[in-house]
Write a structure and sequence with these properties.
By secondary structure, this protein is α+β, with helices and mostly antiparallel strands. It is 34% helix and 25% strand. A seven-stranded antiparallel β-sheet has the order 5-4-9-8-6-7-20, sandwiched between helices. A five-stranded mixed β-sheet has the order 12-11-10-18-19, with no helix packed on it. Helix 11 packs across helix 12.
């Protein structure tokens, strides 16, 4: 063994050795082997040794795993399916997308967020949680629910599920050691009347919360055994890359109902619009009957005219990045007007941009109007103000992020 190259050997400390022993039983499945490889790579970094990406030799007391070979094709499959889904603080690997998660579960309030610091901190965490609860409140009012949602319990479960999902992702895929980069997550908050006893696990979790948080339970008008069932679902995946120019947006579609509430039904409703859009289109912009461009199907929309920023002040979902844009514009001395830009004035805009969780601030190169006769496209070449705002948003991300794992 002395002849072994030290670069190909990872010597595990006693603590890590015990962790490795617990993984022996996991070697029966392909996904478990991948998980083990990733953990070995993470451990090799901690111990100062170097582990080969495709072949790791681990020596831990009498336990020796020789040549755990992971070919490139297998790791490629892992990278294509590195997604985690969680329900009420229980997380597991999944092959379904976030859209499928939203479509396949009961309609509820949802939010999509992003991490920084390799999945350790969440950008605008409080904003996401508050918006989830506010959306649920509005949706329940429109559905004429007789009882209020227990928001203390819901907030507790949301944060617990977020932590569990991110920790599980980082542990299984060792993103800080193997791939690096940040994550995108989607959280869905659903509810059902108490007499719907189909989800015993949700009821059990609420009873446990009531037992461990007596003050919160006592402060409620009704105890948890009488409140509606709450389920939290979360999908986690790697943050997709920012689209490369030219960025094309297409004006097509009417405003959504109750836009202030982030309702998972919208994921299904917008499918018809997505099917109609051209192949080069990055985002669909929604407009009112009188031609006011309100927002994107998954973003907020801004137009710049005469050094001022214009964006709809009502009839839109208040996005997390939109909120930060308001702050940085105030710091930069850029006036913001909560007035929806009209398509008729498009030729007078110096630039335009959209904002979203994964894209942050994205300058638009072309706006297309396919429903006009004949269809027309307008191009923007001066992105200077949009880029100034984008850079300022990037600089604030750490200040507006919360460490969670």
């Amino acid at each position: 063994m002395a002849a072994e190259s030290s670069a190909n050997v990872v010597r595990i400390t006693p603590v890590l050795s015990r962790q490795l022993q617990s993984l022996q039983q996991l070697l029966h499945s392909r996904s478990s082997k991948v998980s083990l490889l990733n953990r070995c790579q993470s451990w090799s970094s901690r111990t100062g040794r170097v582990a080969s990406r495709h072949s790791v030799r681990v020596i831990a007391n009498e336990n020796s795993f020789s040549n755990i070979a992971m070919n490139s094709a297998l790791q490629s499959q892992l990278q294509q399916h590195d997604q985690v889904i969680a329900k009420n603080s229980t997380a597991s690997w999944t092959s379904i997308s976030s859209k499928e998660m939203l479509k396949n579960n009961p309609i509820g309030a949802y939010t999509t967020g992003r991490t920084i610091d390799d999945g350790c901190s969440i950008f605008q965490l409080d904003y996401h949680v508050d918006r989830l609860l506010a959306s649920a409140r509005m949706m329940r009012q429109s559905e004429h629910f007789k009882r209020d949602l227990d928001e203390d319990y819901a907030r507790h479960e949301i944060l617990s599920t977020i932590r569990t999902s991110l920790r599980h992702y980082r542990e299984v895929y060792a993103i800080d050691r193997l791939y690096g980069g940040d994550l995108r997550f989607t959280v869905l908050l659903t509810w059902a009347p108490h007499d719907d006893v189909s989800d015993a696990s949700a009821r059990l979790e609420q009873l446990r919360y009531s037992a461990t948080h007596p003050r919160a339970a006592a402060a409620s008008d009704q105890n948890h055994a009488q409140n509606d069932l709450v389920n939290i679902y979360m999908h986690t995946e790697r943050l997709p890359p920012v689209p490369k120019p030219p960025i094309v947006c297409e004006v097509r579609g009417s405003p959504r109902d109750n836009a202030q509430a982030k309702n998972s039904q919208w994921v299904t409703d917008r499918v018809a619009l997505e099917k109609k859009r051209a192949a080069d289109v990055d985002e669909i912009l929604l407009e009112s009957a009188d031609g006011k461009i309100l927002e994107g199907s998954q973003s907020n929309f801004f137009a710049v005219f005469d050094g001022k920023v214009f964006t709809a002040g009502e009839g839109v979902l208040a996005g997390t990045v939109r909120d930060v844009v308001f702050d940085v514009c105030e710091d930069l001395g850029i006036p913001v007007h909560l007035v929806a830009p009209n398509r008729a004035s498009c030729a007078t805009w110096s630039c335009a941009f959209i904002t979203s969780t994964s894209r942050l601030v994205l300058p638009i190169d072309v706006i297309s109007f396919p429903t006009e006769s004949p269809p027309r496209r307008h191009s923007f070449t001066d992105h200077s103000l949009a880029l100034q705002i984008r850079d300022a948003v990037l600089e604030t991300m750490h200040r507006k992020s919360t460490r969670i794992v």
